[in-house]
Amino acid sequence: MNIHEYQAKALLKGFGMPVLDGRVVRSPDEALVAARTIGGPIVVVKAQIHAGGRGAGHFADDPGGKGGVRLARTPDDAQQAAVAMLDSTLITRQTGPAGRVVRRLYIEAGCEIARELYLSLLVDRATGRIVIVASQDGGMAIEDVAAATPERILKEAIDPATGLSDYQARNLAARLDLHGRSIRAFTTVLRAAYEAFVSLDAAIVEINPLVVTGSGDLVALDAKMSFDDNALFRHPELEELRDENEEDPREREAARHGLAYVGLDGTIGCMVNGAGLAMATMDIIKMEGEEPANFLDVGGGASRERVAAAFRIVLSDQKVRGILVNIFGGIMRCDIIAEAIVAASRETGLRVPLVVRLAGTNVERGEEILSRSGLKIIPASDLGDAARKIVAAVRAEGVA
Ligand code: GDP
Ligand code: MN
C-alpha cells in the first residue's frame, strides 16, 4: 500500500525525522489560509498523488507549463497555484500518459537548499536484509543516477540481529561528504527512517531530496513510503491512510474478497488457482504471442462466492478480450469452480470468448455443469491446448 507525501512526512516526524511545517488542503481557499498560517517569504505548493517526478511533470491542460511542485511568494500566489492544480490531471514519468487527478495539495514552508541528497531504505531480497541506498545526487530520479554513474550510489545492508549501528550512519555520512553538525543530523535522519521502516513493516522509505541547508541542518523535503500489504493487519491505523482514488479499482475489489490479484496491461484475463500455476499460465499465454490482463490466484479452498467475485472482476475489465480459466482441483473442487463461473457469467453476461481447462477433483462433474449451462465455453484438455485456444479465439474476434 502506498501513501501520500504528507502522510509519510507525518509518520516519519513521529520517529524524529526533520520535516518542515506543512498543511494538507483540498481547495484554493484552504491553500490561502494555510500559506498565511505557515508564513515566511516562500511556501511550496505540492500536488499529492501516488507518483514521483511531480516537479518535472506537467498538467494535461497545460503541456508546456509548470509542474506539480510550485514555489509561491505570497498567499495569493499559493491560492492561484491551487486553482491551477486542483482537479487537474498531472502527468509525470511515473504516472504513465493517463496521469493522475490532483485532489489534495500539501502547502509547505519554503526551504533554503545547499545540497540535495538521496536516501532510501528497502528490502534486499537477495540478502534478506534492509539495505540503505544513498547518493550525493539527490533531487533527480535515482534510476538515472544508477544508469549513468552507478559508482555514485552507496549501499549499506543492515544486520537484523544488531540493527542500524551509529558506525554505519557515520560511515555513510562521510561517504556523502557531510561535515560538522550534518553528520549527527544524518544519524538522526537515518535512525528515524530505519525505526519507521521496521515498526511499520514498510516496503520502502525514500527521501528524495534529503536537503542540507545553508546552516548544515538536514530536512526531508520529499518523502515516499509504501507498506508490505501482508503486514497491514498489524497496523490498522495505516489502513486509514489509504486513498482509494489512487488505487486500481480492480485490485481494490479483489482485496475486498481476499483474492491475490494484480492488474496487467494485456488482453487475456486469467483465473487460476495457485501462484505457481498462475505464473505458468501467464508464461504460456506470452509464448503463444498474447499478453495477460491480470494475475489472479483464487487460492486453495476458495468458496463459490469468492470464485464468482474473482470471475466478475475479470469479466468487468474492459481491456479483457478473452478469458482463460485454468484450475487444478486439489482442495479446490472443479464443480464449485464450474458453478461459480456459470453464476457469474449469467449475472454479468459473457461478452468475450472463455476457455476453461479443469483437472483434478470432481473434474467430470465440473465439465458437465459447464456444458449443460448453455454458455459458449470452449473446453481445453491441457494448459498448452488452453493457451492456443484462447489466443486463437481472441484473434478470431479481430481485436487482439
Ligand atoms: P518530486 O518531483 O515528485 O520528487 O517532488 P519533490 O518533493 O522531490 O520536489 C521536486 C523538487 O522541487 C525538489 O528536488 C527541490 O529541488 C524542489 N523543491 C521542493 N521544495 C522546495 C523548497 O522549499 N524550496 C526550493 N527552493 N525548492 C524546493
Ligand atoms: Mn522527490
Fold blueprint:
Blueprint: H1 5-13, E1 22-25, H2 28-38, E2 43-47, E3 58-59, E4 69-72, H3 75-85, E5 89-91, E6 100-101, E7 105-109, E8 115-124, E9 129-135, H4 142-148, E10 153-158, H5 166-175, H6 181-199, E11 202-212, E12 218-220, E13 224-227, H7 236-239, H8 249-256, E14 260-263, E15 268-272, H9 275-287, E16 294-297, H10 304-316, E17 322-329, H11 334-348, E18 354-360, H12 363-372, E19 377-379, H13 383-396
Helix pairs in contact: 2-3, 5-6, 10-11, 11-12
The chain binds guanosine-5'-diphosphate (GDP) and manganese (II) ion.
Q: Notable features of this structure?
A:
Rossmann fold; 400 residues; 13 helices; alpha+beta; 3 domains; Dna Ligase, domain 1; 6-stranded antiparallel sheet; binds guanosine-5'-diphosphate; D-amino Acid Aminotransferase, Chain A, domain 1
What can be said about this structure in brief?
This protein has 400 residues and is an alpha+beta fold. It has helices at residues 5-13, 28-38, 75-85, 142-148, 166-175, 181-199, 236-239, 249-256, 275-287, 304-316, 334-348, 363-372, 383-396, and strands at 22-25, 43-47, 58-59, 69-72, 89-91, 100-101, 105-109, 115-124, 129-135, 153-158, 202-212, 218-220, 224-227, 260-263, 268-272, 294-297, 322-329, 354-360, 377-379.
Walkthrough of the structure:
The two termini are about 30 Å apart. Helices cover about 35% and strands about 25% of the residues. The strands form five sheets. Strands 8, 9, 10, 11, 12 and 13 form a six-stranded antiparallel sheet that branches. The protein has helices spanning about 5-15, 30-40, 75-85, 140-150, 165-175, 180-200, 235-240, 250-255, 275-285, 305-315, 335-350, 365-370, 385-395; strands at about 20-25, 45, 60, 70, 90, 100, 105-110, 115-125, 130-135, 155-160, 200-210, 220, 225, 260-265, 270, 295, 320-330, 355-360, 375-380. The chain folds into three domains: about 20-110, ATP-grasp fold, A domain (Dna Ligase, domain 1, 2-Layer Sandwich), CATH 3.30.1490; about 115-240, D-amino Acid Aminotransferase, Chain A, domain 1; about 250-395, Succinyl-CoA synthetase domains (Rossmann fold). By secondary structure, it is of the alpha+beta class. The protein has 13 helices and 19 strands. It binds guanosine-5'-diphosphate and manganese (II) ion. Guanosine-5'-diphosphate binds near residues 53, 116 and 222. Manganese (II) ion binds near residues 208 and 222. InterPro entries: ATP-grasp (IPR011761), ATP-grasp_succ-CoA_synth-type (IPR013650), ATP_grasp_subdomain_1 (IPR013815), Succ-CoA_synthase_bsu_CS (IPR017866), SUCC_ACL_C (IPR005811), Succ_CoA_ligase-like_bsu (IPR005809), Succinyl-CoA_synth-like (IPR016102).
